[in-house]
# Entry
Amino acid sequence: METLIAIVIGILFSIGTYLILSNQMLRIILGLSLISHGINLMIMVMGGLKTGGPPLLSETFQSFTDAIPQALILTAIVINFAVTAFLLVLSYRTYKKHGTDDMNQLRGHEHE
Amino acid sequence: MNNLLIWPVILPLIAGLLFILLRNHIRLQRVISVVVLGVVAGISIAIMNQISVNGIQTLQLGGWQAPFGIGLVADMFSMLLVLTTSIIAFCCVIFSFRTIGKERERHYFYSLFLFLITGVNGSFMTGDLFNLYVFFEVLLLASYVLVSLGGTKIQLRETMKYVIINVLSSAFFLVGIAYIYSITGTLNLAHISVRIAEAGQDGFITTIAILFLLVFGIKAGLFLFYWLPGSYSAPPTAVSALFAALLTKVGIYAIIRMYTLVFYHEPQITHLLLGILAALTMILGGIGAVAYSDINKILTYNVIIGAGFILAGIAAFTENGALGSIYYLIHDMIVKALIFLIGGVIVYLTGTTTLKEMSGLIRNHPYLGWMFFIGSLSLIGIPPLSGFIGKVFVTRGTFEAGYYWLGFIGLIASLMILYSVMKIFMNAFWGETVLSEEEEKGTTKGVMVPIALLTALTIALGIGPEIINSYVETAVEGLMNPQIYIDAVFGGNEIP
# Structure
């Protein structure tokens, strides 16, 4: 199971990297989003994957699931959600103001 | 347990939330923000005195003992930075009263300003790696809005780049946290330090150390600084001064904390890499500062040189180097805020950022001119001013560690700073007076108070470093002996 998820994370990272390297704003934002999802999966795998273990310690349960990675992912998702929302609004405003969503044309000039 | 520790984090947060309700009471917002920053400065002095008597103070939130809970840890190093942060924020907020404009004030400028301070203070005081990430995001999100607030073309364009690079570096921060968690099984900084000391720092942990260097290096403007000059010159002066003084310093703080508390076992790899990056940063920043003739660009490249110089002292990893780094860090925060504010006033008066189009300001504004002169001498490190003592100790530290090239490059970089700031001084203040007082685009009314305050501070720190010397030495002792920090966090409990 860990191997499968590792491959999925790799695919998410590579698609994300590909999208970031393009010059459309929306694609870059989607790429960042995909990378963040890949990282969330990675945190989950880092805690170890177990089936049937409750996230509690007691004398009767032999195996238990570590609950901390899930708490971390929850926090990371919330933060990522806020940042992505901000980034989408910002890109919309930038598009409106500059009339382009091509990052190559947003380099800035020496005199303006 | 010391409940005083929560106030520097929570007081600006409460005030910022309150301002959202008091949207139309601008005057009240101004008064409250000044009071809050003053109170935080007072509290941090009180905590510093407690630390010098009773040792490092901790607050385990909710009563969950370390390593299970998330705690705040106030050692001398972090409290010195919290105090400097409050003083600088105090000056920047007074500066913004006159310059920031009605529109921004009505759109929650003061709320965002205080949220930024919440994030900065929280990052300095937290004792948990994931909590550090959360506070980083708090300050970054506030800074994203502060850079773009106003919505001019250049601001939007530069904010786009700033946000994208920071989201990416935060993503790698999470990767680092995930690796650390899978290896050590804990997120408490002191506990990570204990576990790594027990197991030894093998190649994998060293790789993670370099990953963290990359992440914090992007935020600190260390080597990967290519986003910095654009986004720091886009926002209004009060904001860019605050960014120059605080934001890169949070990244520097994180590097210093990680490299003295957690990853200190393999200095011949990690600290040497840090030294090489610091040297490259100083050289490239110096070239940038010398090359441009735009006042904002010159000042932002000076921020980059400063970041390289502070980390040179940590790369040396000797007591003198660390002492110099802390002195220089405090000095750099004050003096960067000072020259950014003065640079902003120059742009405000002349209406241009190009050096060639300004001349002879000293006839009508002698105080401004001489304060810029004092600030630039302090930046270079001329003896009676605050930059000197930091520079001496950093250089001595690098020589002691045998990194002669690093100390030498630091001194060369000082010459480049000298050239770049004197270029501003001679072009803007000397020469024929081309603008009479009536023709000027703005006034200096109401903005001289914070500038004078910061100038007085840099002179005071230069003449009387003994005032803070005992505090700085305690901070160095804490940085060079991680065991003090660990003992304070666990407070005699058994370490699991």
